[in-house]
Amino acid sequence: MSTAAPEPAAQAGPAAEPSLLRQAFNVPNILSLLRLAGVPVFLWLLLGPEEDGWALALLVFSALTDWLDGKLARWLNQMSRLGQLLDPAADRLYILATLIAFLVRGIIPWWVVVPLVLREAVLGVCVLTLRRRGFAPPEVTYIGKGATFVLMYAFPCLLLAQGGSDVAAVARPIGYAFTIWGAVLYVWSGVLYVVQARNALRGAPAE
Question: Which residue windows are transmembrane per the record (predicted)?
């Protein structure tokens, strides 16, 4: 009696990435979503009742969760594509919201705000162009991360600098020094992202 050769076992393919809904409910992404939800509240606190103390607390909470979500994503092995999008989006929205509020209140001059806003506008065009051609957004650079860190350190100092207290007198020069430093790094990182986008598009086949 002939016996049929056993069929080879099917090879398991790579595990599919969880759906966006499932990704949204892991711990790091919940922290990122909380940060995003805090942006309009932060803007209202600065421009509405001008509750700088509460705005400062929310900004510190954002900075802490920004650090924590990356750590937790690695510790819990919960790194996801959604998290890679949410984290920089929250950073940029907080920076833009702070710049707008500080400009309206006269805390920082327009010549600091305009280059940073233009940087975001140019990067937005680059990202849309890359996506249209089938490319991922430019990779985050250490200079970009450093620029964000410096600005997120500068903004609380600028809030503390409001008023005539001794704390304000100490925080004021520190805040403005970090703002200028962070702004230069932020614009320079934008230039590097544009170079990344240009190099990617140059290597793409013509449509």
Answer: 30-47, 85-104, 142-162, 174-195
